[in-house]
Design a protein that fits this description.
2 domains; Alkaline Phosphatase, subunit A; alpha+beta; disordered C terminus; 25% strand; binds zinc ion; single chain; Jelly Rolls; 14 helices
């Protein structure tokens, strides 16, 4: 090769490298602006010396969530330093922390945004000025400048004009003594037609007590109306019979073996994504208003949620269904017009089956005075769950339970539909309504939930109203609570992101694993593993006679193996001893599943790549 050719090739290489560098640079800049949520963007921190130590000293013993910096799980929504969460009166917010005299600087080539929405959190003991300014090579403007002393949570919004260009710097600054936090700073992008994704979980709502699925009492008129414009999933199952593992399945798209959260002590590991994180990364406002308990944000559910409230949906409110909706509406006032993903969860239907006094006798005018739920009948719930409390009392509990479903349907589902219609976005919105598990009323000799895995607990009502009604009708396929995240992402056009949340409705050989290794409340209940396929429901009870003996009264009959045909909806004919061929298949599956469970022991927080591969090859992860 002569020198001339060499020079040409070298020149071409240099030009290509420069072009690649330029494209990368432009893309990087674009990337920042793609997401209006500033905590997801790149920034430069100018903090005082020993800021870390000063921060740790300042927050020691304070009511701040213990998620600062070192907690990889909860800061996963951004790799950037100084991010975490603060909790103010039961509501947890994503935050960018500050200490003393400190600056956080965002750089942009050009800024065409029109405004900035943010809050300031100044804790007790801090005296700080908070200042936001914007500057480019030509001008500088102070957008916000306020001094706070003592506890303060301040919401605000600033507008920009004109367009800032060439070397724009957006600077968040504090001065003074103590620590503080900038809460969810985001550029306001109000649209005429925002994309809205709503997920409503009516905790503990049993499928066969909804009129949508054929119950004789008209408990769910609003859900029926919604279902006419959406898809009704006729054969949907949860992955367990209590709140925590079921909700982790809902947000992760994984069954309990995949998500590794099956016991009350478990926390959501940081090595997989949750649905809200995907929406946040796409620039959505993400908010959750829940009843806490086993959906408390601290289990890790708050990942991806800019705001996560444990307050309004709590068990003992008379009107938690309405409170949840009202908290959402109040919050929506600040952000309405931006793309939104919202999760609303209520324990209204959960024991003790409370609802507003005016409605209590909706289904039974002659209802007696015992209006306190099952706890009123079963004094020692730890050992007395197998006590027969008589048909009349059972009916009273069912009356109360059905009424709480009716009230929740009317106030929460109906209220949300009305809100979206008033805003003119009902047609384009996606609304998902489900329950995380059912409830038992002595159908198989016990009460409430979280003890067994029968149909009344593991089958769930599921209605999805797609954007612009793109899918309507009835779906007969075997569906799981793990399919929901993937279906939502696909409907939103987030196909690449949906790959981590596979949907397996089309697999005719599908087997759904249901897992119950430990009751959240009653430790001597036998652990269970169950499988559901197109025709059968298999249950394996890990019996321990010594533990069973602790119940008073003891259960009348508990078999180690149970097998029911789906045609036997009430599951009264145990075919385990009759269907040898079917049992052989399920017992082989059980053996493999138990081996996998054993491997997972002691690896709750994280699994290695090899095991992950093995689980995937066997079809368990992302099932
Ligand atoms: Zn629940």
């Amino acid at each position: 090769m002569d020198n001339k050719k060499k020079t040409i090739i070298l020149t071409l290489l240099i030009i290509t490298a420069l072009l690649v560098a330029l494209v990368c640079y432009l893309k990087k800049d674009k990337k920042i602006l793609k997401n209006p949520n500033l905590l997801s963007g790149q920034y430069r921190v100018e903090f005082p010396t020993q800021a870390d130590t000063r921060f740790q000293e300042a927050v020691k013993g304070k009511e701040w969530e213990k998620v600062f910096k070192s907690d990889a799980i909860n800061t996963r929504y951004t790799k950037m330093p100084w991010t975490g969460r603060v909790r103010d009166r039961g509501v947890s917010h994503q935050a960018l922390f500050s200490v003393g005299k400190a600056r956080v600087v965002y750089h942009f080539n050009r800024l065409e945004e029109k405004g900035l929405n943010f809050s300031v959190f100044n804790p007790q003991g801090s005296s700080l000025s908070y200042r936001i300014s914007i500057e480019d090579n030509k001008r500088k403007k102070v957008l916000f400048n306020k001094f706070f002393e003592g506890l303060n949570f301040h919401n605000d919004r600033v507008d920009f004009n004109p367009v800032f260009k060439e070397g724009v710097r957006l600077v968040f600054e504090t001065r003074g003594e103590g620590v503080g936090a900038w809460i969810n700073p985001r550029f306001t992008r109000v649209k005429k037609n925002p994309r809205v994704y709503v997920m409503l979980v009516l905790d503990t709502m049993r499928l066969d007590h909804t009129s949508l699925y054929g119950y004789e009492r008209h408990t769910t008129p609003e859900l029926e109306k919604l279902a006419r414009q959406g898809m009704v999933y006729l054969n949907a199952y949860s992955t367990s019979s209590w709140t925590l593992p079921a909700h982790v399945s809902l947000f992760s798209g994984k069954d309990p073996l995949g998500h590794r959260v099956s016991e009350p002590e478990d926390r959501i590991p940081g090595d997989y994504s949750l649905l809200a994180e995907i929406f946040q990364n796409q620039g959505f406002v993400t908010a959750a208003f829940t009843g806490g308990g086993f959906v408390d944000g601290q289990y890790g559910f708050h990942r991806g949620f800019q705001v996560y409230s444990n307050l309004p949906g709590r068990v003992f409110h008379l009107n938690s269904a309405e409170m949840v909706l009202n908290h959402f509406k109040n919050y929506a006032q600040r952000f309405w017009g931006e793309d939104l993903f919202v999760f609303l969860h209520t324990y209204q239907v959960h024991a003790p089956y409370k609802c507003p006094p005016g409605l209590v006798r909706h289904f039974n005018k002659d209802l007696g005075v015992n209006l306190k739920g099952p706890g009123n009948f079963i004094r020692d719930k730890k050992t007395g769950i197998f006590k027969d409390i008589g048909e009349e009392n059972r009916k009273t509990l069912v009356d109360l339970y059905d009424t709480s479903i009716y009230y929740t349907d009317k106030s929460l589902i109906g209220g949300m539909v009305r809100f979206l219609k008033d805003k003119g976005v009902y047609e384009s919105s996606m609304i998902t309504v489900l329950s995380d598990h059912g409830e038992e009323f002595y159908d198989h000799g016990s009460w409430e939930h979280g003890h067994t895995l029968y149909n009344e607990l593991v089958r769930i009502p599921l209605v999805m109203k797609y954007p612009d009604n793109q899918k309507t009708g009835k779906e007969n396929a075997l569906a799981s609570i793990t399919d929901i995240a993937g279906l939502i992402l696909d409907a939103g056009g987030f196909h690449k992101e949906a790959l981590d949340f596979p949907v397996n409705l089309d697999d005719p050989k599908r087997v759904l694993p249901l897992l119950f290794p430990k009751s959240p409340t009653i430790i001597n209940i036998p652990p269970k593993i169950s499988f559901v396929d197109r025709e059968h429901h298999f249950i394996y009870n890990m019996m321990d006679p010594a533990k069973i003996a602790s119940f008073d009264p003891q259960p009348t009959s508990l078999e180690v193996f149970e097998l029911y045909r789906h045609s036997d909806v009430a599951e009264t004919q145990n075919l385990a001893k009759k269907e040898a061929g079917v049992m052989k298949r399920f017992r082989e599956l059980l053996k493999k599943y138990r081996e996998l469970l054993k491997k997972l022991e002691g690896q709750k927080g994280k699994i290695d790549k090899a095991l992950e591969k093995e689980l995937k090859s066997l079809g368990y992860l992302n099932n």
